[in-house]
């Protein structure tokens, strides 16, 4: 996970070219640097973080476009994307396009005038009209947007073992978090089953699951505006509202009657194994709040029969909080380094549109960030339901720790949450993280 270091950088960003960023040969308008391959050479280079099957499915999704446009796309996957992209940009060897798994690096390049605002080469209003509400804000720096999403991830999902859950007669559409606790979790507990399946274990990254819980609750209790103030440090991390969100998260994560194995179970269970006890007969736990990627960790027999094995519903709103249905998510943001190349602009227009991704969607493991994407491309009803949850959301907000400075987002926020789960108070946890926030 990458820090949004650009959020604390100073400097004024100029408009590179109000009429569209300049065509081929337009050369660094407004102080922006030309990067990437030669303009108009029908070759476009892309650097991203995904490889393996994802790379294969990405390339498959580009095949028809390459054939019809005559543009050859050269994708390179690099698991150390964050380091590599910085090295390449610093050396003057930028790709034409970068696919950023977190917004921080993109915003840092925006502050350095290394990446082009999307309004210089895309139809901003058209894009805004089809995307999930709020998604473009993840790439916004000083009022302008520098990246457009090409993939979506939805975190605000509650999973349950379908047969056992339905046999128990539990509510399959709780409207509030309070109802989820009283009408579902308490009733599950009354039958001698621990309600929540939660695991935070992730080696050096242990704690990130806990940050997601706080982010979900900050968004639902206080709404997207306060959430934005929190992630950008316009309010301190130890604001009383953050402490209340931590206290609310404790009701799920720290109550031994609510979570399997209590606090030790949470910390000692790998996040990918958290749901496995739900598939025992009888289940040892029933509820799992995790992103759409959770299915890749479920037992093979469950994955092979997903629609019959699991049920889902949206992690609901908080009664007395934000009235709309908010979604915590993530994804990959495409940023253009070579703003004077018409070929690179055409590729950006395609990969950030609702026409991109059908082969990837059919293969599984990919969600479009567009409400207008044809959901019939998704391989099962579970994925279609996840897309429907996202499409009906009032607002989407990017994972908060990915928006914070690295020292916090993938540093003290993780480590202090582990201390919190081990018994540290919400107030102390918030105070410690606030004290760690970079001063410049």
TrEMBL record:
PANTHER family: ARABINOSE-BINDING PROTEIN-RELATED (PTHR43649), OSMOPROTECTIVE COMPOUNDS-BINDING PROTEIN GGTB (PTHR43649:SF29). Belongs to the bacterial solute-binding protein 1 family. SUPFAM superfamilies: Periplasmic binding protein-like II. This is ABC transporter substrate-binding protein. Keywords: Transport. It comes from Terrabacter ginsenosidimutans. It comes from the Bacteria. The lineage of its organism: Bacteria, Bacillati, Actinomycetota, Actinomycetes, Micrococcales. InterPro entries: Bact_solute-bd_prot1.
